[in-house]
Design brief:
Elements: H1 14-27, H2 34-51, H3 55-139, H4 145-174, H5 189-193, H6 202-212, E1 216-219, H7 228-248, E2 253-261, H8 273-277, E3 279-286, H9 302-313, E4 317-322, E5 328-335, H10 347-350, H11 357-387, E6 389-390, H12 392-396, H13 404-410, H14 424-430, E7 437-443, E8 453-460, E9 463-471, H15 472-476
Parallel strand pairs: 1-2, 6-7
Antiparallel strand pairs: 2-3, 3-5, 4-5, 7-8, 8-9
Length: about 500
């Protein structure tokens, strides 16, 4: 490295050092040993500034190390970690895309399964009503030809309706676009317009069609006064109960009851949100069968299992079981607000909005390294300003031939470092013997790091043998420094240093 004195020229290699430090931080994969090396370098520079013979140069070396070594390395390290984070982000995005495709496929399969469950409910309901009509036609005595024709027409109409529903179900299952809309809690819009919507006019339509098929159905006339998904799910509960009653208890009396609570029940337990947020209760019960059930009509229980899953997904509960006096009861509690429903939040909503911790760490390291150096620099400058400054009047009182004791009474207690401000060749020219020594002082007033003049006083055999004033403005203008008197004449003491750059003068 070239000179690092406070007034020396900046080395042309310092930008190359900075580029090398940036490249080292950018390309190095092992970051644990680099701070140790950098910390050791800074410690060595600080030790040289405190303990060495040239403290100003040591402090300058430390500052240059931090500015052109540590800071560029941290910048390169930041660029490396930022690139690694970007690559990891793209890899994460690709992984999320694959996961999203898998989730979409699962949703598509889940929707197809839901449509199949709707097919089971709606088509099974239609076929059960046809079975009820056929059974009534089979046991009805004394029917005329017109009555037989009417009953056969009803059966034909029911069969055509079931066939039409089956065709629509197959069409939906074959179309991938039709399977894309997922139901909200199993009761979304797809069930409103899809094949499972068997009663366009709600629970009343289901009851009227069952009664027209010959079932003994009682209903209190109440429709669901809740949200549309709750109403559709309540219709699914009633449809499943009527289908099971027609299949397993032909001729039994069926009672349908609907109760809606718009407000939550006071004092309801927190584990049952249905009673706290408002809910609809649907109960369908039937008595023991009035006739003989058909063989093989036990069913697989898939309809109730699928219905229970839909109710659970909506935050409700489903209870099904035999009645004490005979028969069967199916009841569902459907909350108007699903339990545990949380607002959707995208990736941006989950992303923390904060300043990158890496930049904060870089700033903290730089401040931690530079702040002590800056404080030490200004403390040293304050020391020079207080203890190593000489005014023009005080300099005039120091004369050649004066005893050292008298000169020390005028001169400050401290002096400038040997390497500060005065070039080495001028210092060598001022010393002519082994017992000669020189001291340098900055002019006052003026900033300690950029004074107007530097005063030099040389002693030999305890007497002043030479005094010089160096005009630093000459160096700023590109001229060589000269040892001159206070009036700009030759130096006191007889030494001509006009050619000091070339070597020695003479006393």
């Amino acid at each position: 490295m070239a000179t690092t004195g406070p007034t020396g020229p900046v080395s042309v290699f310092l930008p190359l050092l900075a580029l090398r430090s940036v490249a080292a931080g950018r390309l190095s994969a092992e970051a644990r040993t680099a701070p140790l090396w950098l910390g050791g370098t800074v410690a060595w520079c600080l030790a040289g500034a405190v303990l060495g013979a040239e403290p100003w140069s040591g402090m300058a070396d430390a500052i240059v190390t931090v500015l052109f070594g540590v800071l560029p390395w941290l910048v390169g390290r930041h660029l490396r970690q930022r690139g690694a984070l970007l690559r990891a982000g793209w890899q994460r995005a690709e992984s999320l895309e694959r996961e999203l495709a898998a989730v979409s496929e699962q949703e598509r399969l889940r929707e197809r399964a839901r449509i199949a469950e709707e097919m089971h409910d709606s088509l099974g309901h239609e076929l059960s009503l046809m079975a009820v009509r056929a059974g009534a036609l089979e046991v009805a005595p004394g029917l005329t030809e017109a009555e037989f024709r009417s009953a056969a027409g009803d059966l034909r109409e029911g069969a055509m309706s079931a066939i039409d529903r089956l065709q629509r179900i197959i069409g939906v299952l074959d179309a991938d676009a039709g399977a894309a809309g997922a139901a909200d809690g199993g009761t979304g819009d797809a069930s409103a317009s899809g094949p499972g919507r068997s009663a366009p006019d709600g629970i009343g339509g289901l009851v009227r069609r069952a009664a027209a098929a010959g079932m003994a159905v009682e209903w209190d006339g109440r429709e669901v006064a809740g949200p549309d998904p709750v109403a559709r799910l309540a219709e699914a509960v009633v449809r499943e109960a009527l289908t099971n009653a027609a299949k397993h208890a032909p001729g039994a009396r069926v009672v349908v009851a609907v109760e809606t609570r718009r407000r939550g029940r006071a004092g309801a337990p927190p584990t049952w949100p249905a009673l706290r947020a408002g809910a609809t209760t649907v109960a369908v019960s039937n008595g023991p069968p009035g006739g003989t059930a058909r063989e093989g009509a036990s069913g697989g229980g898939r309809g109730l299992a699928a219905l229970a899953e839909r109710v659970r997904a909506a935050g409700g509960s489903l209870a099904a079981g035999p009645r004490p006096g005979g028969g069967f009861r199916l009841a569902a509690v459907l909350p108007h607000r699903a339990a545990g429903a949380l607002p959707r939040q995208g990736v941006e909503g989950r992303r923390p909005r904060r300043v990158p911790a890496e930049l904060a760490q870089i700033a903290g390291v730089c401040v931690g390294l530079l702040l002590p150096l800056v404080v030490a620099w200004y403390a040293y400058a304050a020391h020079l300003d207080r203890d190593a400054a000489l005014s023009a009047a005080e300099y005039a009182r120091v004369t050649v031939g004066q005893e050292r004791g008298a000169a020390d009474a005028v001169l400050p207690e401290a002096s400038l470092p040997d390497t500060a401000l005065v070039p080495e060749e001028l210092r060598r020219a001022a010393v002519t013997g082994p017992s000669a020594d020189c001291a340098y002082y900055r002019s006052r007033p003026g900033p300690p790091w950029s004074p107007a003049f530097v005063y030099g006083v040389c002693f030999q055999d305890d007497r002043v043998v030479r005094t010089c004033r160096y005009d630093l403005a000459r160096r700023s203008a590109g001229d060589a420094l000269r040892c001159e008197s206070a009036e700009g004449a030759a130096p006191r003491g007889g030494l001509d240093t006009a050619g000091a750059e070339g070597g020695a003068g003479r006393w």
